[in-house]
Amino acid sequence: MSVDHLDRELREYCREMDARQESLTFNDILERAGDLQVIPGRGRRQAPPRPRWVIAPIAVLAIVAVAIGIRALTSEDGAEPAATPTTTPVLATTTTSRPDSATTTTTSVPDTTVDAIRDLGLPGPTSHEPAGDYGWTTSPGRLRGWLHRVIEDPPGVTRQTQLAFVVSDDCFTGVPAAEPRALTVAGLDGFYLEPYDGEHNYWSRSHPGGGETTGAYALPIADRTLCVYLRWDKATTPDELNSAREVVESIRGEPYGNAGVRINFTLPAGWDTG
Description:
The protein is an alpha+beta fold. The chain has two domains: 3-73, no CATH class; 132-272, Protein Transport Mog1p, Chain A (3-Layer(aba) Sandwich). The protein is built from five helices and twelve strands. The chain has helices at 3-19, 26-35, 57-68, 70-73, 238-249, and strands spanning 92-97, 102-107, 132-137, 145-152, 158-167, 181-185, 188-193, 213-221, 224-232, 252-256, 260-267, 271-272. The strands form three sheets. It has a seven-stranded antiparallel β-sheet with strand order 6-7-8-9-5-4-12, with helices on one face. The protein has a three-stranded antiparallel β-sheet with strand order 3-11-10, covered by helices on one side. The longest helix has 17 residues, at 3-19. It is rod-shaped and about 115 Å long.
């Protein structure tokens, strides 16, 4: 049997094994080559019997060639199967069960990481402080945080909105009959009382015209309570008051030290500590 003939027979054998979805090894090909005596249907005489392992050296070359090309023979076009691509790790998978099967769907999980609370300070003492993120941290020298926004309109006539921060077990002290209402502020389930006229009087000055109103917030920061006091003048406009409430709404905090807190918040332009 010629090498070309042997090559064709072995390739045909590989295709048949693949069609039956049976595994194929180099030893299988070697044994098949030992079994081939005469190609059926060609009318040639059978060659004398020989042991399966005795194969002409030139035939070995055909066997090796076929063995090298086994994977190529298992595809219709003879092309090398594509390598399995590297899978990029996914954020999350969700398995949905059905009566007859289960399917796994790759879904993207939004990033819900909360911004870290930074060590930021209160604005400066001038009336031209820029808008941006500010903060306050409880410390032995900073048991109270205070800031305000003064509006001069018309010239020579001022009104102001003030904010004060303190950590306390009772944000409504001095008002025994106080009935604060539950209120969610800055994502925190706290309480609010308006008007508040208790012992916590942190204002650096009083408006000459009087008529100020104070609203008191009690906001939980882990196992501590942040008290926020918002005070506005009688002449404060609704827009100015809403702007101050948005500052309270922007508060983000975490415990600090043994009993304090650290908070960040966002201010519009014009708030200062002067």
